[in-house]
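My main concern about presentation is that the manuscript never shows what a single data entry looks like. For the editor and my fellow referees, an illustration may be useful. For illustration, here is how one protein appears when written out as sequence plus structure tokens:

***
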Amino acid sequence: MSQSWMIASTTLLAMAGIAAVAYALQRRGRRRADPPPPCPAAPAADEAASPVRDVEEALRITGGSIEVADMLIADLLGSLPDQLTQAEKALEQGDWERLRALIHRIKGATAVCAVPPLHRAVCELQRAAREADTGLTRSWMKRVEVERQRLAAALDVRPGG
């Protein structure tokens, strides 16, 4: 394993840990009846024209390392198809708790990778899953896949490498 890959993995784990602690502290301070925190605004009308990646934000998150940012996004694109398959299975089984946990992990990864259209779609998917709305959840899962494909195409990432 290369040193830069180990740095990227360590960075991602540290960010995930920080996010988990922040989320736990936030939840602890909220009453159960409070609504979930808002997700980013809906995508612009001309979604196809919006950038799939916010490089400035990715650099800010990774402390200025484009190599780490690239590795994080490659890891996201490599793992997302399997995660979406697992999410689809959880939905088919009516396992909303598992589905919500999977979506939460995906949402964290999309936030760390600074991919706004994909992140917005995952946020909407998360809302649909919170409401246990099967039809809306299926629709947003399709949208997440569309955004994943759009991101992969923009970065010229082919399946398997």
In short: The domain at 3-41+49-154 is CATH 1.20.120.160 (Four Helix Bundle (Hemerythrin (Met), subunit A)). The two ends are 17 Å apart (CA to CA).
